Amino acid sequence: MTSLFARALLDHETIEAFLVRCLGITHELLLDNGSRVPLHELCKRIRDAESAVGAAHASSTLSSGRNRVPEYRSDAARAIVRDRIIGELIVNDRLDFDEHIRLGHGGAKPQGKQAQTGSAAYLVTGLPASGKSALVSMLSDRLGAMVLDSDFAKRKLPELDHALAGASMVHDEPNMLVFGDGSGTPSLFEYCTSKKLNVVVSVVGSKESGLKTLRQSFIKAGYRVHLTVMLLDRVEAARRALRRFIQTGRYVPINLIFDGHANEPVLNYYKAWTDTVAGRDLQWASLGALSTGSLPAKVDGYSSDANPAALWERLS
Prior knowledge:
Layout: H1 12-21, E1 28-30, E2 36-38, H2 39-57, H3 75-91, E3 120-125, H4 132-143, E4 146-148, H5 150-156, H6 166-169, H7 172-179, H8 188-194, E5 199-203, H9 208-220, E6 224-231, H10 234-248, H11 254-261, H12 264-277, E7 286-291, E8 298-302, H13 308-315
Parallel strand pairs: 3-5, 3-6, 4-5, 6-7
Antiparallel strand pairs: 1-2, 7-8
């Protein structure tokens, strides 16, 4: 799989130029709690985080033991913890706050109920920090859907705790645990589709080919697949991700959001809508969009009442 392009943020000068020219942060960043972080402090924190990300990518925990914690470093021990994570995702209820998910706590099941059989897959796309979690949580509980989100598995991996670039270090492994690797390895996807459980899937959706491949995997399993996008431009998404980093200590590369994913999730949604109307692609069960530039999210449109955007509108 080809890597997404993202400009290098290697030093104070290039980081400052990116923050000022691309994100419009000229002097300081205002956080959600009202505190302010000066520009020079932002640059230092991003520089350190980017350095850690570069080192983490060199040794992914999926195939290398170099960055694994000692308890789960061997392949045998790793297989045990992977099976445990999948098991916890299956039997444990999802939590109100994703930040509280950890090994032994939290899962992917709707709160207070069993997942329903129905062979419906709800794909929720959008940039990191675009507000996908609110819609995903609502759909899980209202429609009895299991949550397929690699971030849930990621938070259960021990390497993520207190690690500046933990998310980058373990990035490939949670994807395998949730969606599989095509080799028959146990995954949450395999479990849910084998039982025809309703699922809500949280993905960025910046690659049209990847989105259609995911759709086809569900269709092959006998599912109806719905697509809903969270509309948020890349500038605001990067700014939100930066605020989240300062407040939680977990870094998602803001250059990847701005350059790599860019506005592709939104463009792919509009292309899907155009292709559906023109009759070129009739495989989406429904299409819809929520605008998240301001909160709470507002419905932008939907193709039928079967789309999650219609449900959001009725409940708002």
